[in-house]
Amino acid sequence: MRRLQQALEHAEKNGSRSREAVAHESALKHVTGRAQYLDDIPEWPDMLHVATVGSEQACALIEHIDLEAARRASGVVDVIIQADIPGSADVSPVFGGDVLLAGERVDYMGQPVVAIAATSLEAARQAGKLVKIHYRAQSPRLSVQEALKHEEFVLPSHTIASGDAGTAIANANQQLQGELYLRGQEHFYLEGQISIAQPNEDGGVRVYSSSQHPAEVQKLVAQVLGVPLHLVQAEVRRMGGAFGGKESQAAALACMAAVFAVRNQRPVKYRMPRRDDMTQTGKRHDFWNQYRVGFDSDGIIRGVEMDLAGLCGHSADLSDGVVDRAMFHADNAYFYESARISGHRCRTNTVSNTAFRGFGGPQGMITAEAILDDIARTVGADPLDIRKRNLYHADRNTTPYGQALEEEVLPQLIEQLEQTADYRARREQIRAFNKSSPQIKKGLALTPVKFGISFTSKHLNQAGALLHIYADGSIHISHGGTEMGQGLHTKIAQIVARGFGVDLERVRVAATATDQVPNASPTAASAGTDLNGMAALNAVDILKRRLLTFAAENYGADIERISIRDDHCWIGERAIPFAELVKGAYMNRISLSATGFYRTPKIGYDRAAARGRPFLYFANGAAASEVEVDLSTGEYRVTRVDILHDVGESLNPAIDLGQVEGGFVQGMGWVTSEELLWNDQGRIISDSPANYKIPTAGDVPEIFNVDFFQRPNAEETVYRSKAVGEPPLMLAISVWCALRDACASLAAYRYSPPLGVPATPEQVYFCARAAKDFSEAKS
Amino acid sequence: MKFILNHDLVEETAPAADTTLLRYLRESQRLCGTKEGCASGDCGACTVLLGQLKGERIHYRTVNACITPLAAANRRHLVTIEALGSGGKLHPAQQEILDNHGSQCGFCTPGFVMSLAGLHQQLLAGDCLQTDRAQVCEAVSGNLCRCTGYRPIIDAGLKMVQTLDETHRLDARILIEQLASIAEAHTTPYYLQPKSREELEKAIASNPDARLIAGGTDLLLEVTQQCRPIKKMIDLSGVKELHRIEERKGFIHLGAALTYRDLETFFAERSSRISALLERIGSRQIRNRGTLGGNIANASPIADLPPLLLALDACVTLADSRGDEREMPLADFYKGYKATALESGQYLAKVSFPANALNDFHWLYKVSKRREDDISAVMAAIRLRTNKSNGSGNDEVFSEVRIAFGGMAATPVRVAKAELALLGQAPQDESALEAAVTAIAEALLPIGDVRASAEYRLQVAQNLLRTAWQTFNREKSENSAPETLHA
């Protein structure tokens, strides 16, 4: 790493702080423990704490609930069921079906049925044990295969098609088919879900929420209370991680706290213990993907048919968009001459799955990568060569949904990484090593990522900002985006400082609040900076124009001769400190507050025709990962990773590097050690960090080279940067491919052994066994 | 109880036995830099340092505040993130994480800072001499970060260990004096802390309703996970006799209250394979608290020390409030799933095994989904000894064979049939090996659960025996290192 690291250090010493590798705005507070998360706010007197009682059945009618003992328990102040909710019990983001508390029936094991507010969390939890719920059990549907078979869907299936894939496959030189089962992923944000509600004098509340989407929190709280939105304010200072898990599902906690707060006219805190969080909140979707592909003898793909079936759980939540995004990324970086890609939204009696960094993209993309590996092993070529032959390139640049790639990045990027990672020489070394090593096998894979940037729900591609300059020259910016660790507030402050031409220290980013910026979209889809940065810049332009106009009048100069840079207003050679300029503007009654707005241009997807331009642009990257596998146990190590990633013109290389490395390791967890499991009753058995294992420091490859591909975004994004939140997660698909590559070495690389996600040591063990069995059967 | 909280001497008269350090810090002291991530000792966001005066020095250990009882801080120096840094300067752990962009959401950061600060202190004190990447990773092995991917944190740790800063020593003279001044008594009514066996016996006799606690890394989960209060506890960890390490009459006797950390020190010179295994048990924080006795008495089928101790022919000594003792082979101690021979009023006093067993070839291997801080799918412990066979020239045969597993049955088990298959056979006899491998499948019927399927467990257990056998033969012939990922 060392090139990028040096670049960072160099930038810090010499660069302008408004565009370089400055530390996260809260970094000093993080390391001193002074950064305040919701649970750290001093508790108001009389505060109540909430615990819920979850269903013991995955699919049942509720016959009777006995609350008497719980009501009498020590410390208990209030106990509610669905009928006690004053407004709507539905807290769904879009399609309905997510209830705050179950009513007549329960749809998954652990679903909250009763909520208790008590003077302490312990008292509330204790009382929960006294609640008796009587069920009439029905037989639950737990698997995606079962749901698909019975066409049990939360929403209708959707198909994207280009050309006649069936015929193309049939006419192609060779065909193959396969399937992949991809398990989901628990977010495991370190700060669990939490919300605090404070009642106001008008029957509304102010809620403090750990949410990526405060505007939706506000809307849903208003709905459950049955009041207009203007009686509810939602505020988010920071989250202790979110990763999509707090996009829609944080709202239920705010709603619950709000209901209790208004009923009891007391402040209420609802913090989920980790086990409840892992049981009651949705995760990355499991997918069961089936594919058929036709290709030439040189491995060029002629036609692809795919059925992508997402396990949505009991309700829609955000699953429509998740399955759509899986479909939009089922090509990854490859041109399919013809394709039929169908996405199914399967309903099961499990917790409702939700957004998770990548939002379906990883599950689509890994299917493409599996196909490319399968083709390579069928035709007997290096998988990298097959990948390169099929990349979008020149006029072979139109996706199955009809969006043409206007920017060609990957062919050059992959070429560069192939060199810096020394791919060819290492491939040869690994082949030689594997021949002489009976128990340890090495694997290598270089895989690309092409990830579409924009919300696929068009209306969400808008953002607002509210900018104030105070009379002392300090600047205060509010925007609709939320800070979950990704450094959005840092980047926004840099954008504002750079836009004005002032020192970064002058700019303060406010907590996100619905009474500052209304109707904001969730901070999601990697688009936080793209959208809010542009809105902030729009506000900066407005105020800067006012200041320049004032300066022109006040100092009697031509506006064209006036500029603001280096924290000063320059009129020719004369420099006026920014604070002095602002003070003058204030004294002359110039408005020093403005709102900014942005909507993403060019985009639009016609769902009926399944064609259009869902994305403004694509973020790209590639990773080469090397692993070694112990065949006797299936255990493995990731020994080296090289990444080249496209962030356009980086707004802050340190933050972008953090997103790339962090995303990669999180993705590595998804494809390796993180295994979500349910028992046959529908109870989640991976319900704690004791039995659900995210990567630790010891899992990080010792050789971990990350570099940025140097090219500004071709689209007019904020300072030509590119979104970076989600795309790097999918670089970790290279680890999965490398593990499969190591196993395939047992069959002389002419057989693609089955491997699901996560590739736990057990899965890798059986994958290697399959390759060995294939090899032995052949000889 | 009395203790030093950061810079101040604090007295608490009668804390509830099951009040955790974490709740106390956050709710009673409003020191909210220490975070709750999981309340089960798995994430490290609540890492704090506990310093214990031993002689003239304070020994600091990182612990998970979420599963450490407040009363365990009695007579200790408790250091939280709020106390780090001095003279207006950040502690090197803080400064390096800041400079290396090692925080994103920041929620795990105080825990990482404390783990690195613990390493910094131990390096200053000479408790630890390693300053490499492995040492840094070990120090943070119980800290989960979901944002950064750890690289910048590891880099921060590496920079910190290369430039230690004496001005950030935690054990100021005045603190040593203060700790010395509160070294006596200061007991609490609900959390008894006997210092000798005599006091322990009295405590047990007069408090039959009290639960025994040592490290509490499992017991406290009842409180934080199941929300089951524990009203009274007797802490074994201060009983001096239970910390004894003795070697006499060919046996090594280990006191049950020795922590994994103590065992790491003890075995460092005696067995690299046992040392390597210890590093795979729990995390740094868990090993600082968890004890030998706890790992055995807990009777978990997936505990990692029992298979090793079974392979070493260990015996356990149970004692009671009258001072009566009874010794039994560890194999007899386990009566079934989570059931032991311990009767009410009894406690586990020590573990003994023949010293020469450590001279034998022993091979230990833990298989889990994750390398650090995970629970075994399968744990194998195998010990082999050869002798010249009777009369016939120089041919060697296996004269002692121990094959033990965790995760393969309701209790940790030895597989007698597999042992017999190898006993008396030549070390190179592959048919004997395969007979032993087959015997494993005949003797064991593992279950499938969240950690592994039954089929995988069985095949891996068999392969581990094969690998152990191969390793034995390879080491005998070449004296070379075995080919495994964990070596």
The total beta strand count of chain B reads 19
- The end-to-end span of chain B amounts to 45 Å
The largest sheet of chain B is: 5 strands, mixed
Q: How many helical stretches of chain B?
A: 17
Oligomer classification: heterodimer
**Morphology call of chain B:** globular
CATH topology of the largest domain in chain A: Aldehyde Oxidoreductase, domain 4
What would you say this structure looks like, in words?
The complex is a heterodimer of chains A (779) and B (487). Chain A contains 20 helices and 29 strands. With 779 residues, chain A is an alpha+beta fold. Chain A has an 8-stranded mixed beta sheet, with helices on both faces. The longest helix of chain A is centred in the last third of the chain and has 28 residues. In chain B, α2 crosses α5 and α9 packs antiparallel against α10. Chain B starts with a strand and ends in a 9-residue tail after the last helix. Among the domains of chain B are: 184 residues, Beta-grasp domain (Ubiquitin-like (UB roll), Roll), CATH 3.10.20.30; 128 residues, CO dehydrogenase flavoprotein, C-terminal domain (Enolase-like, domain 1), CATH 3.30.390. Chains A and B meet through α2, α4, α18 and α20 of A and α2, α3, α4, α5 and α17 of B.
Please specify the SSE layout and strand pairing:
The complex is a heterodimer of chains A (779) and B (487).
Chain A: H1 2-14, H2 27-32, E1 48-54, E2 60-66, H3 68-72, E3 76-80, E4 105-106, E5 112-118, H4 121-128, E6 132-137, H5 144-149, E7 153-162, H6 165-171, E8 174-182, E9 194-199, E10 205-209, H7 214-225, E11 232-236, H8 251-264, E12 268-271, H9 274-280, E13 286-295, E14 301-313, H10 319-328, E15 339-347, H11 361-379, H12 383-390, H13 410-420, H14 423-436, E16 440-453, E17 462-469, E18 475-479, H15 488-500, E19 507-509, E20 512-513, H16 528-555, E21 562-565, E22 568-571, E23 574-577, H17 578-587, E24 593-599, E25 604-606, E26 611-613, E27 617-630, E28 636-645, H18 653-671, E29 703-708, H19 733-744, H20 761-778
Parallel strand pairs in A: 1-12, 10-11, 14-15, 18-19, 28-29
Antiparallel strand pairs in A: 1-5, 2-4, 2-6, 3-5, 7-15, 8-13, 9-10, 9-12, 11-20, 13-14, 16-27, 17-18, 17-24, 21-22, 22-23, 25-26, 27-28
Helix pairs in contact in A: 7-8, 10-11, 11-12, 15-16, 16-17, 19-20
Chain B: E1 2-5, E2 8-11, H1 21-28, E3 47-54, E4 57-64, E5 77-79, H2 92-99, H3 109-125, H4 133-139, H5 151-162, H6 173-181, E6 191-192, H7 197-206, E7 211-213, H8 219-224, E8 233-235, E9 245-248, E10 251-255, H9 260-268, H10 272-278, H11 284-289, H12 292-297, H13 305-311, E11 315-320, E12 325-329, H14 330-333, E13 334-336, E14 339-340, E15 346-354, E16 361-367, E17 378-388, E18 396-406, E19 413-414, H15 416-422, H16 430-443, H17 454-478
Parallel strand pairs in B: 1-5, 6-8, 7-8
Antiparallel strand pairs in B: 1-2, 3-4, 3-5, 9-10, 10-15, 11-12, 11-15, 13-14, 16-17, 17-18, 18-19
Helix pairs in contact in B: 2-3, 2-5, 3-5, 9-10, 15-16, 16-17
